[in-house]
Amino acid sequence: MKPSDFPVSIENLKVELGGVSVLDIPCFCLGEKEVVSLIGPNGSGKSTLLLVVNCLLKPLSGKICFRGTEIISREDIFRYRRKISMVFQEPLLFDTTVFNNVASGLKIRGVSGKETKDRVTNYLKLFSIEHLANRSARKLSGGEAQRTSLARAFAIQPEIIFLDEPFSALDPPTRHALTDDLEKIVRDTGTSAVMVTHDQSEALKMSDRIVVMNNGRIVQTGMPSEVMNSPVNEFVANFVGMDTILEGQVVRNIEGLMHISVSRQEIEAVGDWQADDKVFCCIRPENVTIETFDPGARTSSRNVFPAIILDIDSMGPFLKLTLDCGFSLMSYVTREAFADLGLYEGKKVFASFKATSVHVIPRSV
Amino acid sequence: MDLIIDGIIKAFKLLIALDPEVLGITWLSLKVSGTATLISVFIGISLGMVIALTNFPGKKFVISVVNTGMGLPPVVVGLFVTVFLWRNGPFGFLDILYTPTAIIAAQAVIATPIVMGISIAALQNLPAKMRLQILSLGATRLQMVWILLREARLPLMAAVMAGFGGVISEVGASIMVGGNILDYTRVLTTATVMETSKGDFDIAFALSIILLILMFVVNYFFTLIQQRERPR
């Protein structure tokens, strides 16, 4: 791909605050019509990256290019800003009506009155807030305010939209409804988007690619399934909800089937690590099956361990079990299965998971 | 008690009769304080904007100085302006001491820190990210400034009202740099002081009532601007 194929690309970007490096990104490109989610803990530099890419914060060094052309002068920045749009965590609405708020970007651009009216009406409709057009922005609920903010950002029909945790202040039902609408509008309008989020389900649902950040650096980039199922290190594994992360050492590897010693037990997993390699075994709780009798040969799972239920936690529709199989293992069961199996704390069960469900990553110490 | 009631009755008679001398004094007060407020709004809001929106070393010190200036005693201002405009003072060549221009200058000095101090607070009270949001909507610097001023219009109008209120009611500086010259530099407050000291309470009452009505009318007008177009 040529650099000009990317709506926005950055190279060797460094940002320091008070002499401390807060951002160090060798390379990042956003593809045409691509939706990228930036995830990472607080202070990992996600929002800073967004500000820099918006030319709202000057980097110490590095290049930001819009369709292959570097943005250098104030005129470049100005032209670039007129093609992009940003939505912040807070709606930051102006003290006027919803209609005028959505129209503000168009008024700034000197769009004619009639076109402004048509476009605003259209975007109010898209975000289902047309009934609020004449209401004061000060009198909106959190969800309505964020819808107005999104409509304002989309009304200028940007080539790229940047979203900085737009839903984090909203309650779950409002957030879900708004995520659905936003995803549809982003896809329908073919807008390239970069979204900072805390919420993995949001990232999984909306994005073509997930970028995991930590300490101002990109730790992993990949398709959502790739990042969720094959985290590159312990940090990402932890962050994407691999609840079971076990320290182990490869005992042997026979044609890609590894035996890994974990707390005097052996786990079988698929991979290329060789004997004596130090590794982490990551297992998603949803991939662990619980039965009350030894499944023996009837299961295709290569890993079956007798276990004792140490703890039961409610996770909404699921229950999360903490198991002791000689090592600590997490498992999700539905409330229905929980009742059918007659589970309780202290009960002896059998936990099984497939060799392919174990994600192995290298360990340095 | 009779003194007060008699005074008020005579005051209303004077008002209804539209005494030309009283009308002249009222008009001059409005003109002088209005001009001074206009100047202070121009300087106070633009400088206040710069102070509020930029970061520089000693910013807190500058803001404290401005805030102290909000309580500048008019007699102190009167003294300094008099000295500056005195025949052999630094601005003596202007030859404007004991003219309405001198009163405007002194009142502008009084009102500017008031307008500036409230403007700084008003603009700093806007969300810090508001500026970024406006820029990211594609605004030029000028458009950004305009939108910020509009966002802060309520407290900014309060700044204008406070500035006007501060100068229309002050007497110390006006009497010192204006001299209370009949038909030339006599304003409502200086006239009130003089009539009271003469014992002509009825005229003093009339002037005071006019002053209060004037302040109410002007502030009512400002309030209408401040509160208009507030969507429900």
Features:
heterodimer; A: 365 residues; alpha+beta; Rossmann fold; OB fold (Dihydrolipoamide Acetyltransferase, E2P); 2 domains; six-stranded mixed β-sheet; five-stranded antiparallel β-sheet; 10 helices; 36% strand; B: 232 residues; mainly alpha; MetI-like fold; 11 helices; 76% helix; globular
Structure, explained:
The complex is a heterodimer of chains A (365) and B (232). Chain A is an alpha+beta fold and 365 residues long. Chain A has helices at residues 46-53, 74-81, 98-108, 113-126, 142-155, 172-189, 200-206, 224-229, 234-239, 335-341, and strands at residues 8-17, 20-30, 35-39, 61-66, 69-70, 84-87, 160-164, 192-196, 209-214, 217-222, 244-254, 257-262, 265-270, 278-283, 289-291, 303-315, 318-324, 328-334, 348-353, 358-362. Chain A folds into two domains: 3-233, 3-Layer(aba) Sandwich (Rossmann fold), CATH 3.40.50.300; 242-362, RNA polymerase II/Efflux pump adaptor protein, barrel-sandwich hybrid domain (OB fold (Dihydrolipoamide Acetyltransferase, E2P), Beta Barrel), CATH 2.40.50. Chain A contains ten helices and 20 strands. Chain A has a six-stranded mixed sheet, with helices on both faces. A five-stranded antiparallel sheet of chain A has the order 13-12-11-14-20. A five-stranded antiparallel sheet of chain A has the order 15-19-16-17-18. In chain A, β11 and β12 form a beta hairpin. In chain A, α3 crosses α4 and α3 runs parallel beside α5. The two termini of chain A are 39 Å apart. The mean pLDDT of chain A is 90. By secondary structure, chain B is mainly α. Chain B has a single domain (2-227), classed as Orthogonal Bundle (MetI-like fold). Chain B is built from eleven helices and no strands. In chain B, α2 (20-53) packs parallel to α5 (100-124) and α4 (74-85) crosses α5 (100-124). Classes of the chains: A alpha+beta (365), B mainly alpha (232). Chain A binds chain B through residues 51, 54, 56, 78, 81-82, 84-86, 88, 90, 92, 94-97, 104-105, 108-109, 134-136, 139, 152-153, 156, 162, and chain B through 127, 129-130, 132-133, 135-140, 143, 147, 150-151, 153, 229-232.
